[in-house]
Design a protein that fits this description.
Length: 473
């Protein structure tokens, strides 16, 4: 490494966030950036340890010590090449990844891990600033045509990898803009959409076609897809939300989290809505059901819209603030996570299950919850209902309880796609020219895992497409 004592002489330094009072007035990115000098010092803290557990934890197996050393030495072209060799979207994961790598950094033993995620984002932005992110169209063309259904991180990765192999790739996206949940599901205060569109523009210049407002299975049929393309990748995600089956669910004012978040993203993109279509939290008591990242995004968005109060309810017990004995380093810490949205104003409640929603004149007004005891279980393993009840004012309820499986639409039916009992696509029963990438096969997960899935799927597809050429010899 360029400075083998840096991790001893320099402490971890985060870029930090903009002041809460300032950032609540807009949807600009919350996270700030370090100056160039400090950023290089942070990169130099990578200690070139004997076993890079960061590499082990990252699902794309990023060669973190290598690109951090090149970054510290300001060999920017080398650094970005190493990074992009395993990560097709570093400027995005550098903003929104929970940083599995950092939790497994050897320096994390003393709670001082390298700022890997921030360094990754800074490196990607530096590469764009220096003009290193130029289109690199494939040098050869194979004549093989590929259709990718879905333009989220898995679909983008598949398209990128196959395009670089010389195959002609068309990506079909049912929404108006490419990006999937990157565009419609993640708030701008975490991921500015210009970051996504910039990458899409680069891929287009490299030869990939993005066909938006095309719902595969309807606007283009399964028969047309199988007849026109040599291989098809379904990267449709797991977009079917988990619903809340309780009395009062039919009341007005109850929304799925993705409807709420995507509507706000549309507004930022310039669209206008009126009346009930607006989905506004302004002046309302908002209750978010679900304690994960999507629920946190709802909290931040509701506060920016001017909610009167925001309460986030989680069915699971409150996690510990420090690692328990059965959750040692270098594994992912099962500890309490407090996001920037939580810091902006939110009441967080744990071990509560919704049992009834009450309203007046068809509009939601209150939600009833019961407390669960996770230390006592029923014969089926569920937590015991303690009988303790509580109620919350609720003019708006946002359901952020995760997703259950891909949407079972006409495309899956017409392609004779079989599903597992839990609703995910059974990859063992697919036609040989159909492939699956991302959440559609594995269930909802992280962007970095979708990228990894896309890379593996692209490798299998390329192997299959090359075999077609051999069959014709």
């Amino acid at each position: 490494m360029g400075d083998p004592r840096s991790f001893i002489e320099h402490k971890r330094k985060n870029a930090g966030n903009r002041p809460a009072g300032e950032r609540l007035t807009d949807f600009a990115e919350v996270e700030q950036t370090l100056n160039s000098h400090d950023r290089l010092i942070q990169a130099s803290r990578c200690m070139d340890c004997g076993v890079p557990f960061c590499h082990w934890a990252c699902t794309t197996h990023s060669r973190i010590p290598e690109w951090q050393d090149a970054m510290f030495c300001e060999r920017w072209d080398e650094a970005i090449d190493i990074l992009q060799d395993t990560n097709d979207l570093p400027e995005i994961t550098g903003r929104i990844c929970p940083a599995l790598c950092e939790k497994s950094c050897v320096l994390a033993i003393s709670d001082e891990p390298v700022t890997i995620r921030e360094n990754e984002a800074a490196l990607a932005e530096k590469a764009f600033d220096l003009g290193l992110m130029q289109p690199k169209p494939p040098r050869i063309t194979t004549g093989k045509k590929v259709a990718v259904i879905g333009s989220g991180p898995a679909g983008i990765t598949v398209a990128n990898r196959l395009n670089q192999e010389g195959h002609q790739v068309t990506v079909f996206e049912k929404d108006e803009m490419p990006g999937g949940l990157l565009t419609y599901g993640i708030p701008d205060f975490k991921l500015n959409k210009r970051v996504v569109s910039r990458r899409i523009e680069l891929l287009e210049k490299e030869g990939i076609r993005f066909e938006t407002n095309v719902y595969a299975g309807k606007d283009i049929t399964a028969r047309e897809l199988t007849g026109k393309y040599d291989a098809i990748c379904l990267a449709v995600g797991a977009r079917e939300p988990r619903d809340l089956q309780v009395p009062g669910r039919e009341l007005t004012g109850i929304w799925f989290a993705m409807d709420f978040l995507s509507r706000q993203n549309d507004i930022i993109a310039g669209k206008t809505f009126s009346g009930r279509q607006r989905i506004s939290a302004k002046g309302k008591h908002v209750v978010v059901i679900g304690g994960g990242d999507t629920g946190s995004d709802c909290v931040g968005t509701a506060n920016r819209q001017g909610a009167r109060s925001v309460t986030q309810v989680e069915i699971l017990p409150k996690p510990p603030e420090k690692r328990p004995a059965d959750n040692p380093w270098p594994y992912w810490p099962q500890t309490l996570r407090t996001s920037s949205s939580h810091e902006e104003g939110c009441t967080r409640l744990w071990s509560l299950q919704a049992t009834r929603i009450k309203g007046a004149n068809g509009q939601v007004r209150e939600i009833e919850l019961t407390r669960l005891d996770w230390n006592r279980r029923t014969k089926k393993g569920a937590p015991m209902d303690t009988g303790e009840k509580t109620s919350l004012k609720a003019d708006m309820i946002l359901l952020a309880m995760g997703f259950v499986h891909p949407v079972k639409d006409k495309l899956l039916k017409d392609l004779n796609i079989r599903l597992h009992q839990r609703g995910y696509i059974d990859t063992e029963t697919l036609d040989r020219k159909i492939f699956i990438a991302g959440d559609a096969a594995t269930g909802p997960s992280l962007v970095v895992k979708a990228i990894d899935s896309g890379q593996k799927t692209a490798w299998k597809m390329n192997e299959y497409l090359n075999s077609l050429s051999k069959d014709k010899r």
